[in-house]
Amino acid sequence: MEKDKYDKDLTSGEEQKLFSKLEFTYSRSKEDVWKVLDGLTEEESEAATNTAQEEPTKTVKMSWWSMGIAASMTILLCYGLFARFYTTTISAAPGEMASHTLPDNSVVTLNAASSITYSPYWWKFERALELKGEGFFEVEKGESFKVHSAYATTEVLGTSFNIYARDESYEVFCATGKVSVKSIDAKEVLLKPGDFVRLNRSTFEKSSSKDLSKSVLSWKNNKFNYNTTPLWKVFSDLERHYGVTIQFDAQEIDDNATVVTDRPETVTEALNLILNTDIYDIEETSEKTYVIKKR
């Protein structure tokens, strides 16, 4: 009943007569369709054409104001991506030290063969950087300041501290303020002034001494300060400080060095100061290569 009422309202008798002549299935060919249309009177053909016309396509025009907003949003998005992912790297070459002021006026001093990488345009949103090597940080007070390295992250609010992150070694010394050190497996240790921690195979080894500052920060003051330090580590330091290569047999030379001195101008002077020349031969095989052998 409802369907009959709907059909009656939808079309007049004349229109129903017209549509009955237009009925065909989608399986008919184009030629069959034209034959049906040819059988219509001129008036019926015109009515069919008018009935079959689609509604006109609506075109929405954007105003200049809308286009301006869209362009502004695109520019802001591009700037945000640029600011977030653009980075700059500051390096200290072998044999050199470098000092760099960060965007918040915090200062980092890099030891030889060390570098930091950070996002300068994102700094106001996140004070974070990556350190490779060794650096001393004097951090301005403010939001969290993070130093990421391969094996751990050190976080502070405003303090000064030293980080050594080379190869598989990670050491942190807190000079002032408080420092939080967190390993990659989420272990955490808190340091206060004078505290020193070394990360050894996911385990923190913490110590504290008033004299630690002199030894840990000796590089910053152009000094060598070794206290029963393995010679292989001393040689690694000399290679970075002087930009040279030192060759030796690690099984043959397994001694330690104990010396406190100003850093000599040349590596030859340094080797003669650190090594007992009655026991060791020092041979310069080329301009920047030295071979150490036991007598």
TrEMBL record:
Entry keywords, A to Z: Membrane, Transmembrane, Transmembrane helix
InterPro entries: FecR (IPR006860), FecR_C (IPR032508), Ferrdict_sens_TM (IPR012373)
Highest taxon of the lineage: Bacteria
Domain Protein FecR C-terminal span(s) in chain numbering: 223-290
Any GO molecular function: sigma factor antagonist activity
Domain FecR protein: 89-179
Transmembrane stretches, start-end: 64-82
Transmembrane found in the keyword field: yes
Pfam families reported in the protein's UniProt record: FecR, FecR_C
Entry protein name: Uncharacterized protein
